[in-house]
Design a protein that fits this description.
Structural class: mainly alpha
Number of strands: 8
Shape: globular
Helix content: 40-55%
Strand order of the largest sheet: 1-2
Largest sheet: 2 strands, antiparallel
């Protein structure tokens, strides 16, 4: 049984993966950048510094590990991280079997039972700080919390088989068949794995009582230790990765309230969280009040501190929900008033990004050249950069308005965007996509264009050059290729 993840080089002082680290000779799991770091950490680490009994633990079942931890979790020792890793391996192994019960223990219940370990409260003015400092010093625990892959078993299999990203399919039926074959939608192992890791990362940072439901677990006083910073950035990384977000599902319930807590009390850390790419997860949960309140704070931030690529992404994510053919990234709120509140905040964020750009035209020109989807393989259902088509539209409008943009203008432009069927404007798509992605997008949207009488012109080699006048009407100037 391979438990080597717990021995990977990871500094126990900075909680970063670094080169040329020194390993603790006694536990063989803790690493440091220098002997001085090791000495300063020894006061905490010495209480748990002993090599985990990997041989014994590898022979245990997940149920046996759980029962041991259930009786001793508050009395953590050198074997705690290894027990957790063995349980996670058990979950993955059992999920591949048709019968997902072992020793009469249901895998689907495993995550919530592990989650109960994380929901420890700081009641009666008794601080849990020493407890969390010790846990983060346990041999292998930082590696377990920060390096564990929370993708579901289904996504793990897809990534292994298709390392360059999700295969391209010409039809929606083929996409559906692919998801059914690999059980991407039905596999809940990512959620089971997420309940403990996400819950523990958040409670490591938050000092306060526990509410009835986990969506409030991120509320309370924020601790100020180095492991807290590492935990915050790990949660942001989880939120920024579509396949992990799609896998972790309900185990992410505490995250919106946690990020709102960061925004209210550590605004500089919020910038770091956003620069990791977490906004894609934040807007996906925008119909939750915590996320909506968080987005309101984001709309007041000084955007100059954000990386430019991140601003491109946030701008496209905030403008796309106004589109005619775009689905809202958040789940349906079932309330038109709530939906409008989200859209208002989205437009405020978009305006903030644009008006704080020294030169809006140049900013949007660089946005058109961005190819984020080419930099990182995507295993979710890819749009091939289609979400950035709105940036080409905005660039067109800003150019016509001599580089001037304000809230009133953007509101008018987004109303025009609402009238546009983007699949009928391949010249906009061409500006934001590489040739191979553009060809895939054309293939994907062929049937939609055909229904609007456009496909015949495309196949005849005719290029349509369309302009949108100030009233929002479409003018077609068609010329032969």
């Amino acid at each position: 049984m391979d438990l080597s993840i717990l021995q990977r080089p990871l500094c126990y002082k900075s909680f970063e993966v670094k080169e040329k680290l020194l390993r603790c000779a006694q536990c063989k799991c803790a690493w440091y950048a220098s002997r001085e770091e090791q000495k300063s950490h020894w006061r905490i680490h010495k209480t748990v510094c002993k090599e985990p009994d990997f041989t014994m633990i590898s022979k245990l079942s997940g149920e046996q590990c759980y029962k041991i931890l259930e009786t001793m979790f508050l009395k953590i020792d050198h074997n705690t991280a290894a027990m957790l890793e063995r349980m996670y391996q058990f979950i993955r192994e059992e999920s591949r079997k048709e019968d997902t019960n072992s020793d009469n223990f249901s895998i689907s219940d495993f995550g919530l039972r592990l989650h109960s370990f994380t929901r420890m409260s700081s009641n009666n003015n008794v601080s849990m700080d020493i407890y969390y400092k010790t846990v983060w010093a346990v041999p292998g625990m930082p590696q377990f919390l920060l390096l564990t892959d929370l993708r579901s078993v289904a996504y793990t299999e897809v990534v292994k088989r298709f390392p360059s990203g999700r295969p391209f399919f010409e039809s929606e039926d083929e996409d559906i068949d692919f998801e059914m074959k690999y059980m991407i939608e039905s596999d809940d192992t990512g959620e089971v794995l997420g309940w403990f890791v996400i819950g523990f990362l958040i409670r490591s940072c938050v000092d306060g009582p526990i509410a009835m439901t986990s969506n409030h677990d991120g509320r309370g006083n924020l601790r100020n230790y180095k492991f807290c910073e590492a935990a915050m950035l790990k949660i942001a990384q989880i939120y920024s990765t579509p396949e992990i977000r799609g896998s972790a599902m309900k185990s992410m319930y505490p995250v919106p309230g946690f990020f709102l807590n960061i925004a209210q009390n550590k605004p500089d850390m919020l910038i770091n969280v956003l620069n990791v790419g977490a906004f894609s997860g934040i807007i996906e949960w925008a119909d939750e009040q915590y996320s909506l309140d968080l987005m309101k704070i984001i709309s007041t931030l000084d955007t100059k501190a954000l990386d430019e690529e991140i601003k491109f992404e946030i701008l496209s994510l905030c403008c796309n929900p106004f589109g005619n053919t775009s689905e809202s990234p958040w789940y349906s709120s079932g309330d038109n008033d709530s939906e409008q509140k989200i859209l208002n905040v989205c437009s405020n964020i978009a305006v903030k990004i644009l008006v704080e750009s020294p030169n809006v035209t140049t900013f949007l020109e660089r946005a058109l050249m961005s190819r984020q989807e080419k930099k990182v393989p995507v295993w979710t259902n890819s749009e091939y950069g289609a979400k950035r088509i709105v940036l080409a539209f905005l660039h067109q409008k800003v150019n016509k308005n001599d580089g001037v943009v304000n809230k009133k203008l953007l509101k008018c432009w987004l109303k025009e965007w609402k009238k546009i069927e983007t699949h009928n404007y391949p010249e906009l798509a061409m500006k934001v996509m590489d040739q191979d992605f553009y060809e895939r997008w054309l293939e994907k949207t062929k049937s939609s264009r055909a229904s609007y009488g456009q496909q015949e012109n495309m196949e005849a080699g005719i290029t349509g050059r369309r302009e949108i006048d100030e009233g929002g009407d479409v003018k077609n100037n068609i010329s032969g290729a």
